[in-house]
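Open question from group meeting: does this chain pack into something compact, or does most of it stay loose? Before anyone orders reagents, we agreed to write out a predicted structure and look at it together. Recording both the input and the output here so the notebook holds the full record.
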Amino acid sequence: MLITGGFIDAVVSFYSGSSWLGILVTLVVGGCVGLFHAVLCVSL
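Structure tokens returned:
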């Protein structure tokens, strides 16, 4: 999740020019990745 968050933050910040937007998108994407991981762990 950390690697995904760092990559998403760098890409969004680069293309949008806003580091705050990068952090916000990183929080949302990190939550979605964490939820996906939890669902996989519980269901399998």
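Observations to bring back to the group:
The CA atoms of residues 17 and 44 lie 40 Å apart.
The mean pLDDT is 94.
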